Design the sequence.
């Protein structure tokens, strides 16, 4: 009964936060619709090469690479963001170096041969991961779902900072009931609009969207459970600028996790960093299931994501519980 009263309280308060409602009701559906239209009609797009040179350089037209001559070397961030796929620099001995962070060794070697030996690009792109449109749509919204989750869980920091938590604890409401209500509220308010938006995309795309409604429901349960745990965690440890901090983390980890573009980094350090990120394992699971494999084929990835859900959730609950106890005393 007390949990229901808490949920009603959260509902009344969240309605007043127009930015949260707009993101849930408008931003997520718009991003799903945009991804659906963009990737369902996607034609063959050339990879972009930044050729660093002070002089005008001309290479024969090809259907694999778009070569842009630039005067200065692009920042590594431009490679991470996908503005360029390769940076090619000509050295004093007329040989070229090829730098990339997202392309696999097979394609990088073909690009190196193309610029150094005039080699053919036959076979280029054949080993890239062609991502299913269903995986693409879900991947695109992961970052927004995480941001939305933190915004919803922002009710807890509000209670903590405005000393409302002390009044709630003397109601009497236990710390466990408060945390459970916050978790349920965040999960439901995230899950329902996300499932409706992605489900609508499945209806629109038909057979192009390879996940069944049942599998889609299960995958979104995993995603939203992770988001809820992360939201409780970040809201418990960060005292100021919670939304900004969470947004930066969501953007960086979503890019490196391959949520927007499937990639296989050949840099050892970057590969190690990406392997730690939960979104990377979630996207690997999505891509595999989209190719016809069963969820049971991805038990290591599922176990790793579950580990992060438990780690973030338990840590967040522990900190919130201690804060609530202090507020009640």
Sequence:
């Amino acid at each position: 009964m007390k949990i229901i009263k808490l949920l009603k309280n959260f509902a009344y308060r969240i309605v007043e936060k127009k930015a949260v409602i707009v993101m849930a009701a408008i931003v997520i559906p718009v991003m799903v619709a945009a991804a659906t239209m963009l990737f369902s009609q996607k034609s063959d797009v050339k990879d972009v090469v930044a050729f660093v040179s002070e002089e005008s350089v001309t290479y024969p037209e090809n259907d694999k690479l778009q070569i842009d001559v630039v005067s200065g070397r692009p920042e590594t961030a431009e490679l991470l963001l996908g503005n360029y796929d390769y940076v090619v620099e000509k050295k004093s001995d007329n040989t070229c170096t090829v730098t990339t962070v997202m392309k696999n060794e097979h394609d990088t070697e073909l690009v190196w041969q193309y610029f150094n030996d005039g080699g053919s690009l036959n076979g280029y792109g054949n080993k890239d991961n062609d991502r299913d449109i269903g995986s693409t749509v879900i991947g695109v919204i992961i970052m927004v779902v995480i941001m939305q989750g933190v915004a919803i869980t922002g009710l807890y920091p509000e209670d903590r900072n405005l000393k409302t938590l002390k009044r709630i604890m003397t109601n009497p409401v236990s710390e466990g009931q408060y945390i459970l209500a916050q978790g349920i509220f965040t999960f439901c308010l995230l899950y329902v609009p996300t499932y409706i938006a992605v489900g609508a995309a499945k209806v629109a795309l038909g057979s192009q969207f390879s996940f069944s409604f049942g599998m889609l429901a299960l995958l979104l349960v995993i995603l939203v459970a992770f988001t809820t745990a992360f939201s409780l965690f970040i809201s418990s440890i960060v005292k100021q600028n919670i939304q900004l901090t969470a947004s930066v983390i969501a953007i960086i980890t979503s890019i490196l996790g391959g949520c927007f573009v499937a990639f296989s980094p050949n840099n050892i350090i970057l590969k190690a960093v990406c392997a730690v990120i939960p979104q990377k394992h979630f996207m690997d699971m999505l891509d595999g299931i989209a190719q016809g494999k069963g969820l049971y084929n991805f038990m290591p990835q599922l176990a790793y994501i579950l580990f992060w859900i438990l780690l973030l959730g338990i840590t967040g609950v522990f900190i919130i519980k201690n804060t609530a106890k202090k507020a009640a005393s």
Summary: The mean pLDDT is 84. The two ends are 23 Å apart (CA to CA). The chain is about 65% helix and 5% strand. The chain has two domains: 2-41+130-328, 47-117.
